[in-house]
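@channel anyone free to eyeball this complex?
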Amino acid sequence: MRGLRKSYGDIIAVDSIDFEVESGEIFALLGPNGAGKTTTVEILEGYRKRDSGQVSVLGHDPAISGLDGMNWRDRVGMVLQDSSDGLDLSVEETLAHLSGYYSKPRDVDELVEAVGLSEKRKVRVHNLSGGQRRRLDVASSLAGSPDLLFLDEPTTGFDPKARRTFWELIQSLRTGGTTILLTTHYLDEAEALADRVGVIARGKLIEIAPPSTLGGREYAKATVSWRDESGELQVESTDEPSEFLRGLLARYEGEVSALSVKRPTLEDIYLKMIGERT
Amino acid sequence: MKGFTRTSRIGFSRGALEIKQFNRQREAVVFTILFPLILLFIFGSVFRNEIAPSVTFSQYFVAGMIASGLVNSGFQYLAISIPMERDNGTLKRLRGTPMPLGSYFIGKSVQVLYSMSLQVLLLLGCGALFFDLQLPTEADKWLTFTWIILLGTLCATILGIAFSSVPKSGRSASAVVSPIVIILQFFSGVFFIFSQLPDWMQQFAAIFPLKWMTQGMRAVFLPDSFATQEVAGSYELGRIALILTAWSVAGLLLAMKTFKWMRR
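replying in thread with the prediction:
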């Protein structure tokens, strides 16, 4: 997409955003609430109209309608933010019905298995927990074996264990060759899943990079801390942690007490990046 | 052609799913099906007087209530439940799938035909058992009954879908839709005898389909001799067909153009 722009009245939600996602890649859009993530994704999904800019998703403008639109949606899966529909149907009924829409439907047994809902296949949706419901959403979006999957804040409200299980599911999809566009405000999620991260703040795309190099993370100052002879905690910030460590090791015999070397976390970098914008 | 078979295949699959969901929502079943029965018992019990030789008001009323059944389970139910589906994300999810809009319409029609059949059977049964409703014995009256019910269901379904874009939210839908239906029932010869209403009221009601549906049901369930009591002096079956078809076509064009997938 090139120069994407969208405003509501006087408020500019998204302002000249450019990025490209490679086939087979997991790309994460990261940003605080209200930064324009969902607006961007909903334009790519065909839910919203853009004011200007060019967008091509799987070779088509997502605003297409009619038969072309249907063929396009046959290849795309979408997991939307909070939904509370179809509560009176069972897991199995929901998936069996949805797979009837697609030209390359996935087997329902396989789908249920893939998202770990085998035990719950006869359970009505309103009796599922939040995490199970979300996994059903993902299974629904996979019902047509999509080439491209949109995941909009998929793990909001998950407990840590459910989040890990969910990540494994997403990683297994990557192995299967599905291209994934993910939005999240969890840094650890972006770091665990994404090949590249785009940071959005106030409707602008600040940077695109792999999680390990975002914001010059690999060159950023490291913090070395240790306890000295008098038992006091010492902290040193340095551009050359290896060099500094050699000196430190030469100074003490044996173990250096409470030694740690920290690079800034993705979160530190991210907060600094969006902080500069506000 | 391929698109057509796909649209109807998915449409009927949606119909089966809609019926399943409808049956599992106890309140909806009770509200749409039992409410007209209760009205039938109240009005039918209070007004038992003869309004013409061998025609009682309760017979007149049952015919009107069957016609209202089409409006309740078609127009009213859809105009309220579709905005709710817009609020809870059903429509947004469907919009993201390759489901044709026509399949959604077919699914709704199938579900309405189902709940409407339940309701009409109950009304017919109770009407015949308790309120001297004469079930016709002639085949051509049943033929009239069938086409009016089918065309009426189609018309009420389409108009319900078309009107679903009017309420802003699912919560306000009932407050917007229910008064319209009740007023139309008063004007269209359900609660009162149509020919005794003031002229302006008759002319107003004649614009809308419900008046024609009640008249059609009277043609089926009241004696032919009663036709002279109608405003036009006959049951005007041809005109009923024409007006219901016109509303269906206009409603369909409008629904295709104005259908809203998402709340704005």
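from a first look: Chain A has two domains: 2-209, 216-277.
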